[in-house]
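User: I'm writing a tutorial on reading structure tokens. Could you give me a worked example: one chain, its sequence, then its tokens, then a sentence or two explaining what the tokens reveal?
Assistant: Sure. Here is the example chain.
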Amino acid sequence: MKKVYLLKEFESKKLINKKKIKVFIVAGELSGDLLGEGLIIELKKMTNDIEIFGVGGSKMIAQGLKPIFNIKFLSIMGIFEVILKIPKVIKLLNLAKSKIIEINPDIVITIDAPGFNFRLQKSIKSLGIKQIHYVAPSVWAWKSYRAKKITKFLDHLLVLFPFEKKFFIKEGLSTTFVGHPIAFDDYYNNNQYFLEKSLNENALKKIVILPGSRISEIKKLMPVFIKAAELLNKNYKEIKFYIVTLTEYKTIIMEYFKDTNLNFYITSSHDERYNIYGKADFALCASGTVTMELAKASTAMLVVYKLHFITWFILKAMVKVKTATIINIILKENVIPELFQQDVNEFNIHRIIKSYLDDDNLNKIQIKKLKIAINELKSGTNDPSYIAAKSVLSYININ
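And here are its predicted structure tokens:
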């Protein structure tokens, strides 16, 4: 019988595997690329001979991932948007499956993007390869039946949030709460990254604008964000807007500011966000992982959510929670204000941001709650990537 490396052995030594371990990882979003990066780093620390294949972004590739196609092809948001790209999705699924058969990895790990990744995991069940998914589907929000469905093809599930584990354990799926890496990120308090000098101007009102990581989000949100910024510009003599975006979207976003007199600073440096988020007075952002980054930076925020009207119509009928912000779900109260669909307009955005800029107590109350939520995102003292890597290697035969 093949020996399986037990979790307790990781505590004191590196796994000396007799054969090269082959791991196939598919990350479907840029946030998944961050999780994948941490996982690969820890796997490499714990093993002496490992090869990584699959789909990931620049961070995973920098850690040694051998990509089979570009991660941007999986960055699809919303039901309607997915329908339009079904032929491309099917083609990518077939390509991923054929590569898995060709490579014959010891384990297949999918990260987030359940629409694509669960279809892939289900399609390879008959291959007899161990299967793990990282980031739970939002069964607490909608499609609760998925908790039972994924037990049929997954061996293990890694979850980021403390309230998620119970939904899958009761269905018989082995599940580990690893925590969220953002809760352990120290760079918001101590770093040597570039600091835009205006961030140290105390008299200046500093507003972060984060329109999302997808071009569809940016096109929906930037016009109304600009209008709200212009209203705020009339209220405060000294106010500046800071935008953190991806390199490919920087020029596009700058175009929205072209015909305004707004004072703004835009960067595509991922590292600069630590100082920008940490020193901002308030943040206006699209729903997503960035809300936890802002919470870690102790920056009060307003979250907006705007989808294609067909997608929204379907989701509204199915969603079981009244918030789209994970921090609110963790705290079980709507600490972070939110705007949805038609309510995402310049007047509502202006009203909410101005209330926080004018009322320091309102700001402090949200920040206090954000700190509580961040502590809830930790699973003990170990880094989530370390816990995730231990779980992964416990499923791999080493002889």
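What the tokens reveal: Residues 1-12 have pLDDT under 50 and may be disordered. The longest helix spans residues 215-235.
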